[in-house]
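Dear colleague,

Thank you for sharing your sequence with our group. We've completed the structure prediction you requested, and as agreed, I am returning the results in plain text so they can be pasted directly into your records. Please verify that the sequence below matches your submission; if there's any discrepancy, let me know and we will rerun it promptly.
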Amino acid sequence: MKPVEIKEDIWWIGAVDWNRRSFHGYSVSPLGTTYNNYLIVDDKVALVDTVDKHFWGRLKCNVAQVLGDRKVDYFVINHLEPDHAGCLADAVEHYKPEKIYVSPMGEKAMKAHFHYKDWPVEVVPTGSTVSLGKYSLNFVETRMLHWPDSMLTYVPEAKLAFTNDAFGQNIASSERFADEYDPWVLEQSMRHYYANIVLPYSPMVIKTLDAIEDMGIEIDMICPDHGLIFRGDDVAWVIEKYREYAAQKPKNKAVIVYDSMWKSTEHMAEAVATGLADKGVSVKIYSMKADHHSIIMTEIFDAAAVVVGSPTHNNGILPLMADMLTYMKGLRPQNKIGAAIGSFGWSGECVKILTEWLEKMSMDVVDPVKQKFVPDHEGLGQCYELGLLLGDKIQEKLAE
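Please find the predicted structure tokens below.
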């Protein structure tokens, strides 16, 4: 895609990765993604972030289309992850910038990534300002949103914020702005991105939004490093969405996720779902053999209850459930009721192991249901009763 002027003399010069389907190696990205970076053309020219290393040629081409023979004077590196700083070493060698502005933690990360000796790095903690001419750059550390080095760069004269990963979505498209795109797909992509990338840092999201509000910063354009740019009324909308996501207020919803060998645990999951539905709870059932853990996590993050199921296998649980629980625990979902179900043949450790995982995630755990080999009518009735119990507990939680 060609460069797009998003404000006077401020350009999107990123790369669209139409074929990206695995994001960071742990999350799916069925719509592809973009590596957004930006160029501010002023008395001094500033390049804000770079792109994935595979698109170094695209970056050079886009810069040349905007600048012609002019040089790039400054780099601003808001985050050192390779999808944003992958071209940094090539760019330093090629453009020879006068300054590279980076957060205090960013300097440490930059050294560890690139092992440079003579780069013109200047640390810019929160409150630092750099003038480009008619525009200036104000820097705000956003430590642990989502890496220690993360930084937001604000251009007050343009009321524009470069937010790096915050407010991102994995969408490859010819459109550059959110108001040009399908709103339902956009919101789903935002939820997926938040649930799988930003969720553990929800306290930092609230703290950052509060700090920006206290500073009285006017923003009429938010430019993330992935996906579409927000402008106009969409700015308030996306900020409110982030407050909603970060609050992790549970909805009248339960997610059942399981793996099964001979369908006994699957039948138990369906019986639990029937009980929940009879209590008026919206239920979604996911088999680990059918769905990716990042898709399931997108549904879990705003659910009030999570039911996990696995038969006993080699005195443990099935490997795909262990994968799901490991992934879920790392993302630290809050405000959940948890329950375990599972079938067994002889030793029967499954529900004990599943319950321990839920307890490690600080869930309000109810008694599990375990069935030997194939559940009969009475056994499935116990699962149905578990669904009813969870339905009552969800209503109690929502009333808190």
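Summary note from our side: The first helix runs from residue 56 to 67.

Kind regards,
the structure core
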